[in-house]
Amino acid sequence: MSDPPASRESAFRVEARARGEHVRRRARVWLAPGIGVKRWLALFMICTFVGAVGFLHFTWTGPLHFIATKWILWLNALIAPEVLPLYVAGISVTTLALLGALWSIFMLNRSMLGGTGTLPGQAVDMILEQRNLSRGPRLVAVGGGTGLSNLLSGLRSYSSNITAVVAVSDDGGSSGRLRESLQMIAPGDLTDCYAALSDSPVMARLLLHRFQRGDGISGHTFGNLMLATLSEEQGGLGEAMKDIHEVLRIRGRVYPASTHPTTLVASLSDGREIRGESSFAAQVGNARITRVRLDPPDLPALPDVLDAVREAGQIVLGPGSLFTSIIPALLVPEIAHAIRQSAAPLVYVASLMTEPGETDNLTLEDHVQAITAHLGRMPDRVLVNSESPPDDVMRRYADAGAHLLDLHGASHDLRSRVTQLPLLQPGQARHNPEALARALMALPSRAT
C-alpha cells in the first residue's frame, strides 16, 4: 500500500530541508577562517565588476558603440521601464552573470575533483584540515619502539609539522636479520613511525603486515622489506627519504638518527660490556647499566634532522625504553649538539614502568639523570602519568619484575619540572595517544 500524499509531501520537505542544511554547512566550511577562500572569492568578484565596467567603457566609447546601443535598446524593449527601472535591469543582469561565473567555477572544480575520486564536500574538509595542521607547532619527537609510534599517532591530529628522529640500533628480530644480511640500519622502528603518520589507511595497514610463512620472508613485515628494497636500490635510506615520504603520504617527516649501521654497547656497574641491544635483557643480570655508547661513535646525522631540531618549537624525548630507544638517538654527536643549542623546551615523557633487564630498580630521577648525563642537557619538563593501572595489570608487571615509575623519592628540582596528568589507555599500562598529545600541546613551546 502506497503512502498517502500528505506523508509523501512531508517526507519531501524533510529531505529538502536536509539538503538545504547540507549545502549551507558546506558553504560555511568553505568560508571558514583560515581556509584561504574568502580573500580569493572577494578578489574574483571585484575583478569581475571592474572587468564589466571596463568592458562597458570600451564598447560605449570605442568601435563597438553600435553593439552597446543595440543591447540597451533590446533590453529596454524586453523590460518595460515603467515596470522595472533600467538601472535595476542592469544590476539584475550583472548579478545573473556573476552567479553564472561562480557556478561555472564550481562545476569546473567538481569535474576536476571527480577525476580524482574526491567529492566537493570531502575536498573542503581535506583543505580545511590540511590548512589547520600546517599551522600546528613544529615538533621534534626523538626515540623508538612502540612508544614513539604511539605518540605520533596522537600528535598527527594537531600538526603536520612533525619530525620523528628514530633510533636505528636494534639488532633483534626482523630488523636484526635484515641488518646482518644487507648491512643496513634497523628498519623496524622506522616502519612503525611511517605507519603511524601515513595518511593512507591501506598503506599503514600493509606496512605493519608480518609474513607468517614463506622461505626467507617469514617474520618480516612488509614495511621492513620495502625499506630494505629502497636501501638496496639507492645505496642507503638517506637517498630514499624523499621517495618514502611521498609514496607513503606521511603527515610530517620520519628520519633515522643516522643512515649508517651502528651497534649499541652497554657498560655495566660490574665492569662488563654488552654488545647489541637485543642482548641487554638477558645478560645484564644483577648489574646495572651505567652508560651506553654507539660503535662506531662518530655517526653523521641527516641535514634535515638538524634543520628540524633548530626550527623546533618543542623537542620531545620518548616515551620508550631508556637505554635502547631514547638515549641511542641522542648519541649521534650532531643531534646531541643541536638539541643542547636549541631554545625549544625539552620534554621527557617518562615511561610508565621500569623494564626488566634494562632499568631494574631505577627511579624516575635515575631516568632523568641518565638522559642528562648522555645528552648534556636536562629536560625542561617531565611529563608523568598520574593514574594507576588496574590491579591485574600491575600484578602481571610485578611478576615480570617491573614496577611503576612515580615521584617517590624525587628531588625538589625534579618535582619542579614535573607535570602529572592522567595518560593511561583504559585498562592498560600504556600511554593513551590522544591524552598524551593533548598534554604536550598544553605545555609551553617556543614560537618559531
Succession of helices and strands: HHHHHEHEHHHHHEEEHEHEHHEHEHHEH
Shape: elongated
CATH architecture of the largest domain: 3-Layer(aba) Sandwich
* Annotation field: number of helices: 19
Q: What topology, given as strand order, has the largest sheet?
A: 3-2-1-7-8-9-10
CATH topology-level fold name of the largest domain: Rossmann fold
The number of domains is 2
Rg from Cα = 31 Å
Rounded to the nearest angstrom, the distance between the terminal CA atoms is 68 Å
Low-pLDDT runs of 5+ residues are none
Beta-strand content: 5-15%
Mean pLDDT: 85
Q: For this structure, what is the CATH class of the largest domain?
A: Alpha Beta
Function: Required for morphogenesis under gluconeogenic growth conditions.
Subcellular location: Cytoplasm
Pfam families: CofD
Transmembrane segments: 40-60, 84-106
Description:
The chain folds into two domains: 21-132, no CATH class; 138-442, CofD-like domains (Rossmann fold, 3-Layer(aba) Sandwich). Helix content is 52%, strand content 10%. The chain contains 19 helices and ten strands. It has helices at residues 5-30, 38-61, 65-78, 86-114, 120-134, 145-155, 173-182, 188-197, 201-207, 222-234, 241-248, 280-283, 303-311, 322-330, 333-341, 364-375, 391-399, 412-417, 433-442; strands at residues 139-143, 162-166, 253-256, 263-268, 273-275, 289-295, 314-317, 346-349, 381-385, 418-421. The strands form two sheets. It has a seven-stranded parallel sheet with strand order 3-2-1-7-8-9-10, with helices on both faces. A three-stranded antiparallel sheet has the order 5-4-6, with helices on one face. Helix 6 (145-155) packs across helix 19 (433-442). The protein starts with a helix and ends in a 6-residue tail after the last helix. One of its GO terms (biological process) is regulation of cell shape. Pfam families: CofD. InterPro entries: CofD, CofD-like_dom_sf, Gluconeogen_factor.
